[in-house]
Amino acid sequence: MEFLLGTWTEERLQAFHEGRMVDGYLYFGAHAFGEETTFSVWAPEIEGIDVVCVDPATEDTSTYPLERHPHDASIWGVSIPENLEGQLYEYALRTPRGEVLWKSDPYARQSEKRPFTKSIVSGPGEYTWPPEVLKRKQTINDKHLERAMAIYEVHIGTWRRKENGEFYTYREIADELIPYVIDMGFTHIEILPITEHPLDESWGYQTTGYFSPTGRYGTADDLKYFVTACTEHGLGLILDWVPGHFCVDQHGLANFNGQLLYEEQREERRMNPDWGTLNFDINKGEVVSFILSSAHYWLEEFKFDGYRMDALVNLLFIPNIKERPHNTEGADFLRKLTASLKLHYPEKLLIAEDAWHYPKVTHPVESGGVGFDYKWNFGWMHDTLEYMKTPPAERSKAHGKMNFSMVYQYEERYQVIFSHDTVADGRKSLLNKLPGTREERFLQLRLLFGFWMAHPGKKLLFMGQEFGHFEEWEFQPELDWASLEDPQHKGIAEFMKELLAFYQNEKAFYELDDERDGFMWLDADNHEQSVATFIRRGFLPEDECIVLCNFSEHHYGSFHVGVPHKGSYEEIFSTDSAKFGGTSAGLRQAAETLDVPCDNQDFSLKLDLPPFTISIWKKRKDGSD
């Protein structure tokens, strides 16, 4: 009783019930310190609850009854005068109907590896964060709006596997993944959810352990090693995290006390038929405190550099209604969540995934926005891929799909993405979506990546696509690394290295991503030739680049493009370079402007534009107006 009164003060109880608690993991769950282990759980309207512990070494079982808090019948706890670190445990809840429900701990910080479902008593851990890492964490996202950002999206369990098919641990994957990502030229890693989940096929999105790193890849200390290694090498590390729904498995949150507790009370909003998950009751203070505490936990305990938040469509829009009306409750909840995170961790990135057309997702909460830093540009992704899947001879009819994104580009801050959803569940890999012969597919894949890089917005690419993975992604095998022995796949990998290096070196492609001054169409509507031309700009006039995108199979030997300044221009990048497997021996050194107006510009260039090619030009520094 003394433990309950000391831990669950009146102030903490009030904060928890009102949805204001952000550190519930410090008080709920199992905690082993010194010669004491405490357990605490929220379980209203039950008759009693025991914690049943199993010593994994001896398989001996011990049962400890929990007591009610004397001033709050929904909070239960017990203090045991013994250090039980490492023991397995679960709660046995007795309902008024005489049922006994066996549940894992909602606030467990360690769990058994699937298919087992017990929680594990965790201690304080042995990992010590290096001071230089903690210092660098404060600045790793500095001025991110003005910097290049290329995110490599990874599913840890299928990026690579050991020869015997087993998973790499967090420590082992760090030693393999980090050098690869740096060599390729990415600036950040984003990992698919590592919150504990029972089913591999869910990719981590059907969570049962909101405070527990999955045991598939090792311990919490192993994960901290991985986070540290990323920081030491200058890589940002973003966690894919699910704020809105949870797994239906009966050992988890579903019907936790024999009734609807964590899940949405309204039947029509409760279930997600497409995912087989349950939506949280975001109108219940205790559930809000649970979610807020999970959000704070991963940033505080593991020092991630931000979140990509999944499935916001069922928070920003009312679930299970085809017309998708705005969900005021869900938007207000997200504002509370983002405001809380930004208050405590202003340096962390918050990225919204499936937000559709909801307005002001990346605007500050204080000005009526939802408070995210970036929003995934699903519209650009879907339109671009639909356009690229169209046979080249028919692209003139679909030209609007290629240029439509610029109509809304500056309403939000966007990331342009080719994510895991793009290349799974029967959707084919990026390479396999493209029409034509094998050679034409590789040409168009370079074209697609070039357009991705040149379009305004920070970049994200799912693993394997950087070398033209032929098959779509599946959750079981590792990536097809053997395909890199093929010259065309190796050529795509080498191309991606150079593309990302070019992206980071040319400020015009990232400094003004979210400013109208950073982009100008020269000709957006050349559907007859399936060509788009535009200008990208940085802060300085000399960083200006001219971009020509030929989405057709035709070679235009004398293509005219307008330019704003007179002088000598040089080609600084081409997706058609022979070193990537293209047809051009090298970059053309220079082209002089003509005093011929074009594209509403006073001057123009006459250029050779190969099929399926992006060609980028820049005024030479020694040129004269």
What would you note in describing this structure?
- The protein has 16 helices and 30 strands.
- It has 625 residues and is α/β, with parallel strands linked by helices.
- Among the domains are: 10-121, Immunoglobulins (Immunoglobulin-like, Sandwich); 519-619, Sandwich (Immunoglobulin-like), CATH 2.60.40.
- α8 (285-302) packs parallel to α10.
Topology at a glance:
Blueprint: H1 2-7, H2 10-17, E1 29-33, E2 36-42, E3 48-54, E4 61-65, E5 67-69, E6 72-80, E7 88-94, E8 100-103, E9 119-120, H3 131-137, E10 150-154, H4 156-159, H5 170-184, E11 188-191, E12 195-196, E13 209-213, H6 220-232, E14 236-241, E15 245-247, H7 267-270, E16 271-272, E17 277-279, H8 285-302, E18 306-309, H9 313-316, H10 328-344, E19 349-352, E20 374-376, H11 378-389, H12 399-403, H13 405-408, E21 414-418, H14 430-433, H15 438-454, E22 458-462, H16 487-505, E23 519-526, E24 531-536, E25 545-550, E26 556-563, E27 568-574, E28 591-592, E29 603-609, E30 613-619
Parallel strand pairs: 10-11, 10-22, 11-14, 14-18, 18-19, 19-20, 20-21, 21-22
Antiparallel strand pairs: 1-2, 2-6, 3-4, 3-7, 5-6, 7-8, 7-9, 12-13, 15-17, 16-17, 23-24, 24-25, 25-30, 26-29, 27-28, 27-30
